[in-house]
Design a protein that fits this description.
The protein is mostly helical. It contains eight helices and no strands. Helix 4 (50-60) crosses helix 5 and helix 5 runs antiparallel to helix 6. The longest helix is centred in the middle third of the chain and has 17 residues, at 96-112. It is elongated and about 45 Å long.
C-alpha cells in the first residue's frame, strides 16, 4: 500500500475545492459531511474513510481513486488498473462482448507480467478464452466488418418466411 500522507491529501483537497470555487460550507452541503470534519481533513488532522472521499470526489468532480491513493487507501498501481478498466467499460463504441474480451486480454497480459488479475476477471467469462475462437454472428463476420443487428440485411432473406 502507498504510505499514508494525510497532510498531502488535505492540501490537495483544499486546492481542488478552491479550483471548483466552493467554500468549505458549500462542499459540506454538497457532500453531506460536516463543515468541521472537512476542515480537519484539509488541515491533515483526520483521515477520512473511503466513503467520505467518494462523496468529496463526486462533489468536486474529480477521481475518487486519486483521493484513495493520496489517503493511502489504494496503491498507485491499483488505481491505474481501476482507471484502465473503467475506460474500457465506459467506451460506448464497443459492445459488452468486446469489453469482456478486452478485459480478458488485459488480465492475461497482467498475469503474464506477474500481476494478479483484476476484480472484474472473476465475473467475466472464462479468462483463457481465445477471441478468434468464439462463435456467433460477431465472430463469423470477420475482421473489419460489423455484425450488428443490421448485418443480416446484406443477405437475401424473405421477411415473410
Amino acid at each position: 500500500m502507498a504510505s499514508l500522507n494525510v497532510g498531502n491529501l488535505g492540501e490537495y483537497l483544499r486546492e481542488q475545492r478552491r479550483a471548483a470555487q466552493l467554500s468549505l460550507r458549500q462542499l459540506a452541503d454538497a457532500t453531506g459531511v460536516s463543515n468541521p470534519y472537512l476542515s480537519q481533513i484539509e488541515r491533515g488532522l483526520r483521515k477520512p474513510s473511503a466513503d467520505v472521499l467518494q462523496q468529496v470526489a463526486k462533489a468536486l468532480r474529480i477521481s475518487a481513486e486519486t483521493l484513495y491513493v493520496r489517503a493511502g487507501i489504494l496503491d498507485e498501481r491499483e488505481r491505474e488498473e481501476l482507471e484502465t478498466r473503467a475506460v474500457i467499460l465506459a467506451d460506448p463504441s464497443i459492445n459488452e462482448r468486446q469489453k469482456s474480451v478486452l478485459l480478458q486480454i488485459y488480465d492475461s497480459f497482467r498475469r503474464e507480467n506477474g500481476y494478479a488479475a483484476g476484480p472484474e476477471a472473476e465475473t467475466a467469462p472464462e479468462a483463457e478464452t481465445v477471441p478468434g475462437a468464439e462463435t456467433g454472428p460477431e465472430a463469423e463476420a470477420g475482421p473489419g466488418t460489423h455484425a450488428g443487428p443490421d448485418a443480416d440485411a446484406k443477405e437475401d432473406h424473405d421477411p415473410h418466411s
